[in-house]
Amino acid sequence: MLLERIYDEDLAQASYFVGCQARGEAIVVDPRRDIGVYLALAEKHGMRITSVTETHIHADYLSGTRELAAKTGAQMYVSDEGGPDWRYGDAFDSAVRMRNGHEIVLGNITVQAVHTPGHTPEHLSFLVTDGAQSTEPGFLLSGDFVFVGDVGRPDLLDEAAGGIDTRFQGAKDLFASLRDRFLTLPDYVQVHPAHGSGSACGKALGAIASSTVGYERAFSWWAPYLAVGDEQGFVDELLSGQPDAHAYFGRMKRQNRGGPAILGDLPALTEYTAEQVTLALAADSAIFVDTRHNSLVHEGTVARSLNIPSVAKAASFGAWVYDPEAESLPLLLLASSVEAADEFRAHLLRVGIDAVLGYITSLDGLELVIPKIVRQQDLDAADPILLLDVRSKNEYARGHLPDAVQLSAGRALWSESELPIEGTIISYCQSGVRNSVIASALRRDGFDIAELEGSYAAWVGARLFTHT
Question: Is 357:322 a contact under the CB 8 Å cutoff?
Fold first, then answer.
């Protein structure tokens, strides 16, 4: 048996390629939308992708299940658990809809669906048995059910998908799933989750790629509650201190349930000249994306551009500042080469941002403006109408500037009605990177934003220095 983990550092998301070498057949679990990596793996190992599935209706990225099935002819498998509100849409009519216990067979390998509600009502985990070695399952692809050191949060439906107090029943369902599904497995079963450290789908995810049932039974934070049957203590601890849910999660839920659009072969990106970019921006027919670090952006950038610094977090930051349900203009990227632009586009596709038109390799010949910055030494005299902390609520709770109001960067674009349209808003994050991202989007929407130089870290450092 072959089991390979494909990890996206941008979204802290893992998908899995499981193959039977004897039959040359493979299944992909929880694929992302840029599917080249799975096709390359199949070619490398001389396999055909015959099946594709996902653990649940994802909130943090756009699923590649339909894309991969359309490209390879693989059979789609999706959950049929959770009731009618969690049934996949008509775009999945050709999919096999699985209930608890359903088995997918690939040569010597059996992949069994296990209903593990809690994170979401329809959630499935997959027990994998390598029949060439054993008659018993040895691996659990746990999706967003069990992570290394944590479990999937049950409050996303409330936070991002319009649910009302679903978190409480979800937390109880998760307790039952751990008790009745997870902890009944042998300790040796390997656990391979769909997310790692940095994901907003849990509050204490480990950075290690995998675990075992025995390790989680012995050392996870939740194990003592299960050991004594303390459901309420588990619920209270699980629901406390969860990170902010990004607003774009609601769009991902809707699109993933209905069925993401199939892209097929992507058109080549066009390289633009400075004159062409200038004309497009003057006609308001495109949005410029400055992909540089905020320190360079602060030296001069294109007016009304979005700052999405580097490809490493392009999906995460891009989803904060560009909402395809509200914005119809395509994007023009600053990229060093067509290869860099293609990679940037691939990251954006993972969160359903499909409208990348082209790229330019330099700012030469473009008219630049200097974003408004407030120096630390000028902060006390600045007198803004609002001091805005765009970090998470957990960061804010650990310390913030006096009188600052918290609104996380991942929710700001969807919460503009909470911001004053008249007067200067001074915004900050921890180091300035996230602040530059969301400040660019708010400026584009007409807000007078001044970024605090060095953000919170510099503010704390200045006060420590003056007290030593």
Answer: no
In angstroms, the CA 195 to CA 209 distance is 9
Q: H or E segment at 164?
A: none
The structure's pTM equals 0.95
User: Pairing mode, if any, of strands 301-302 and 368-369?
Assistant: antiparallel
d(CA 27, CA 321): 34
- Whole-angstrom distance, CA of residue 242 vs CA of residue 408: 13
Minimal CA–CA distance to 350: which of 54, 32, 66, 52? 32
Residue at which a domain ends, from 202, 233, 258: 258
**DSSP β-ladder status, 75-79 and 48-53:** parallel
Whether 280 and 403 map to the same domain: the answer is no
Contacts with 466 (C-beta within 8 Å, 6 or more apart), sequence order: none
Q: Do both 315 and 378 map to the same domain?
A: no
Say how far apart CA 104 and CA 115 lie, in whole Å: 15
Of 230, 258, 286, which residue is a domain's last? 258
Distance (Å, whole) CA 415 – CA 162: 15
**How many domains, in total, are found in the chain?**
3
Asked if residue 160 and residue 126 are part of one domain, the reply reads yes
- Residue 356's nearest CA partner among 333, 383, 373, 324 is 333
Kindly state whether residue 264 falls inside one of the protein's structural domains: no
Residues 203 and 333 in one domain: no
Contact between 113 and 164 under an 8 Å Cβ cutoff? The reply is no
Per-residue pLDDT of the chain (468 residues; tens, 9 = 90+): 999 999 999 999 999 999 999 999 999 999 999 999 999 999 999 999 999 999 999 999 999 999 999 999 999 999 999 999 999 999 999 999 999 999 999 999 999 999 999 999 999 999 999 999 999 999 999 999 999 999 999 988 777 667 788 899 999 999 999 999 999 999 999 999 999 887 776 766 778 999 999 999 999 999 999 999 999 999 999 999 888 889 999 999 999 999 999 999 999 999 999 999 999 999 999 999 999 999 999 999 999 999 999 999 999 999 999 999 999 999 999 999 999 999 999 999 999 999 999 999 999 999 999 999 999 999 989 999 999 999 999 999 999 999 999 999 999 999 999 999 999 999 999 999 999 999 999 999 999 999 999 999 999 998 765 544
28 and 147 inside one domain: yes
